[in-house]
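Many introductory courses stop at the sequence. We go one step further.
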Amino acid sequence: MDPISLIFYFVIVIPSSIIHEYAHGWMADQLGDPTARYAGRLTLDPRSHIDLWGTILLPLFLFISTGGRFLFAYAKPVPYNPYNLRNHHWGELMVGLAGPMANFLLALSVGMVIRFLPVSAYSEFLGIIVYVNLLLMVFNLVPIPPLDGSKILYAFLPPSAYNVRNFLDRYGFFILIFFVLFLFESLSPIINLLYNLIV
């Protein structure tokens, strides 16, 4: 990837992560929890979502240290109160799914532009938008706390699996670090398959 594309890759991951967080807040609001709206977070204004470490410094560090091979960013998590949701059990699942699905819909929309409109001069940059959003979607669906996939997993765990949830909640951060350092590349075939299907 050339330097301009790498910079664009770095730039596009920030609004994509903001859209991801906005979608969580929007879904929670639709399901009866106005926490994000009352906190002023139900907006796409970057000033409400940018986290100095997760949105700026972390992706910049990863961008420089890996030469652009691995890049991830996150916005400030949008607050929500699961006890306000009309359906507590499935509501948490829907709030968890909202962020990854927002990234998927953005990737799909831009992919359709590449496929059906004459934008060959910009295809490489549009392709980066697709790839970044698929990366955010797939990574966030990994069922390790605090990623969204854990909320989806918990919705399907029987009550007898309380110990599993307790273990993941307690050690999820360390498991996630291990995953990022040693297993992240295992997601590449899934991301590439989805990319090729869309574009």
